[in-house]
Each structure stands twice: as C-alpha cells, then as structure tokens.
Amino acid sequence: MVRRKENRRKRDNGKRIILYPLTIRIWHWVHTLAIFLLVFTGLQLRFPDLIGWFGTFRTAVNIHNIFGFIALFDFMLWFGFYVWKRELVKQYVPTRGDFLVGMPKQSTYYFARIFFGDPPPFEPTPEARFNSLQKTTYSGIMFFLVPLQIVTGVLLWDLERFRPVIEALGGVRVIDAFHIIIAYIVAAFLIAHIYLATLGHTFFAHIKAMIVGYEEEEKEGGH
Q1: Mean pLDDT on 147-172
Q2: E strand spans, the chain
Q3: Are 22 and 213 in contact (CB under 8 A)?
Q4: Which of 26, 151, 173, 185 is most open to solvent, judged by the fewest CB atoms within 10 Å of its CB?
C-alpha cells in the first residue's frame, strides 16, 4: 500500500494526488506528438528510398519543419512556466543526494527489486515529481540535448540564411551529424520513457496521471 503523506500532497476527496497542472499536461502531450512526428518524418528524410510513410520527400520535409517549430514553441512554454513558478531547479536539477543516494537506490529498484514486488523507493509529490534518475535524465535532455537539437534544426531549416553560422561551426555535415545523433538518443529515450511509464501500481497509472493530472492511490490489499 502506498503510504499517505498528507502534508506533502494535494488531495481531492482523500484519494486523488494532484501532480501535474493543466499547463504541464498540455505541454507534455503537444511535445510528445511533435517528437514522435519529428522522429518518424526524420526517418523518412534519412532513408527516403526505404520509407514513404508521409508520401513525398517534400511533404515529409514540410511536416518535419512544422512540428519542429511546434516543439520549439512548446519548449519555450515549458521553460517559461517553470521559471515563472520558480520550480525549474527544484524539479529538474539533481542534487548531491540524488547522485550519491537516490540514483543507486532507484537503479537497484529498476534493475532488480521491482521484479521481486518491492515498493518503489520514491513517491512523487507536487513538490518533487521526479525520482533521482528521472531528474538526471530529464535535466540532460531538456537543458542540453533539446536546445542543441532545436538550434541545429533551425540552422538546417534555412541553409542560405544561416550559412555563416553553419560554416563557423564546421559546415553542414557537422551540424547534420549532431542533429541525427541527438535524434537517435531522443528516440532511445522515448522507448525507455514509454516502458517506465507502465511501471505504476497499474499499467496505465502514470499515463493516466499525465492525462487527468492526478494519480489515485493504490487501494489497500491491491497489487
């Protein structure tokens, strides 16, 4: 049974744990849609002779560009919201304790203890939504890889306009290589993210929480 922590959680009728405000939920699903379409259109652009999911090459380029800018503005929404709420560091920047204690404990849980039915070592709250591994991974993704992917994507979007910048950074091949490598990393992250999202007290508990904003407690005696 998940222990109750009344002083750390916002509840509705004593059962609902409010974790994700509407702004964050909208950002998450818009970003999810954008990233999926960027990955799949990117695969067609990378392997045009093998993949034709979006019709012509030009159509795939247009869709890729549109959702690239959607991801850009959505990222700005995410960053602005957390800065405005003064929660960016608290929610996303790992502490010394996260590295020394939280990450080993969470890793042990994911790689071993979860298979023995042990309870998770971390319980999300509105004040701390992510465990140590999540914070470390998300900080690397959101503070480094996503901005770098956006910058390289914008440069590749208009080669003529940004040619001086591109040449100063090593040329089109260098920019394109970084863009593709990051895309593969993000795709791998998505697979892991989807898997970990199914590890709640029910298969869809974490996914539902990102839709409705709250996560219901596991009932006593439940599994």
Answers
A1: 96
A2: 11-12, 16-18, 214-216
A3: yes
A4: 173
Domains parsed from the chain with CATH numbers = 20-216 (1.20.950.20)
How is residue 183 written in tokens? 């895309």
**Side by side, which strands form the sheet with 214-216?**
11-12, 16-18, 214-216
Give the N- to C-terminal CA distance of the chain in Å, as an integer.
Answer: 8
Helices (H), the chain: 22-46, 57-85, 88-92, 96-97, 103-111, 132-140, 146-157, 163-168, 172-196, 205-212
SS3 130: coil
pLDDT at 5: 40
pLDDT at 180 over 70: yes
Q: How far is CA 107 from the centre of its chain?
A: 19
Q: Tokens at residue 137, please?
A: 């991974």
Return the DSSP state at 217: P
* Residues 178 and 152: beta-carbon distance below 8 Å: yes
Q: What is the DSSP string of 92-116?
A: HS--HHIIIIIHHHHHHHHHTGGGG
Band of pLDDT at residue 200, cut at 50, 70 and 90: confident
